[in-house]
Specification:
This protein has about 120 residues and is an alpha+beta fold. The protein has helices spanning about 10-25, 30-45, 50-60, 65-75, 105-120; strands at about 85-90, 95-105. It has a single domain (about 10-120), classed as Winged helix-like DNA-binding domain superfamily/Winged helix DNA-binding domain (Arc Repressor Mutant, subunit A). This is Winged helix-turn-helix transcriptional regulator. InterPro entries: WH-like_DNA-bd_sf, WH_DNA-bd_sf.
């Protein structure tokens, strides 16, 4: 195993720039909050349904944290700021206990912008 860093600095700068796009919402944002939105975007891109319970599993969160993260990107949560309207939170037609998550047009535009910045500069 080498003790040298074996990557091009430009590649790391691409990641840094992408993460800075998220910091515009909260400069202390946790990685799990970022991953929540990215997992919703990935599921939608793959034409898959995704729920809060799926976020719990995919990101490795407790139920309350997954709910707070989704409300942060959606309509907001009473315990934190949020309310960025990047996602819609609905109910599954066959199980009203299950909350389904979809990107809004604003969320799609933001994710497209982040991905475009990574792919154009990578």
């Amino acid at each position: 195993m080498s003790n040298n860093l074996e990557f091009d600095a430009r590649e790391l700068n691409v990641i840094i720039r992408a993460l800075k796009r998220f910091s515009q919402f909260d400069h202390k944002m946790q990685v799990s909050t970022i991953l929540t939105l990215l997992e919703i975007a990935l599921a939608e891109r793959n034409n898959e349904e995704i729920s809060v319970q799926d976020i719990e599993k995919r990101v490795g969160l407790q139920s309350g944290t997954a709910s707070r993260n989704t409300y942060y990107w959606g309509e907001g949560h009473r315990e934190n700021t949020g309310g960025h309207e990047m996602i819609n939170i609905g109910f599954a037609p066959n199980d009203r206990r299950k909350r389904t998550l979809r990107l809004t047009n604003k969320g799609k535009a933001f994710i497209n912008d982040v991905v475009k910045g990574v792919t154009e500069n990578g």
